[in-house]
Design brief:
Blueprint lengths: L6 H26 L3 H30 L6 H43 L10 E2 L5 E2 L5 H5 L1
Antiparallel strand pairs: 1-2
Helix pairs in contact: 1-2, 1-3
């Protein structure tokens, strides 16, 4: 069960969002530098901050479900918290996108190394408009 959420805790959670933002920036730096050891070390504090912030969100949701009117100071603090969390979400998505791109590059490199009988690996070809050009039907059959 979540703890009661008071205005001080909600305000303090904005500082936790700032900490999460710094962690996400550090994570991006580790990913960019391909420092997997540093990336792994960052995951422990990141998970803790996310757990703390999820408790704040759950407590706020519980208050909203009670249909009690919330004071303007509360709503202002919640909006500040919400905007900080949206920024962190975007930073996390950026990191996820970098991970996915690196994964695709590694997958492509592995496919090229594992290709059988010296045949070139299947690649996507693009036309002048940037759209994927499909190889003609039977091309793979003719290549074999």
């Amino acid at each position: 069960m979540t703890q009661a959420l008071d205005l001080d805790r909600l305000t303090a959670s904005t500082h936790a969002c700032a900490r999460l933002r710094r962690i996400l920036e550090e994570e991006f730096s580790a990913l960019r530098d391909q420092s997997l050891e540093r990336f792994e070390q960052i995951q422990i504090p990141k998970a803790q901050v996310l757990a703390d912030l999820s408790e704040v969100v759950a407590a706020h949701k519980h208050l909203v479900e009670q249909n009690l009117p919330l004071p303007p100071m509360w709503l202002s603090a919640w909006e500040t918290f919400r905007l900080a969390m949206l920024e962190c979400r975007d930073l996390n998505r950026r990191n996820e996108l970098l991970i996915l791109r690196k994964r695709e590059a590694i997958h492509g490199a592995l496919s090229a190394l594992v290709s059988q009988n010296g045949a070139s690996p299947p690649v996507d070809l693009y036309d002048r408009l940037g759209k994927i050009r499909r190889l003609p039907k039977g091309h793979a059959y003719n290549q074999a």
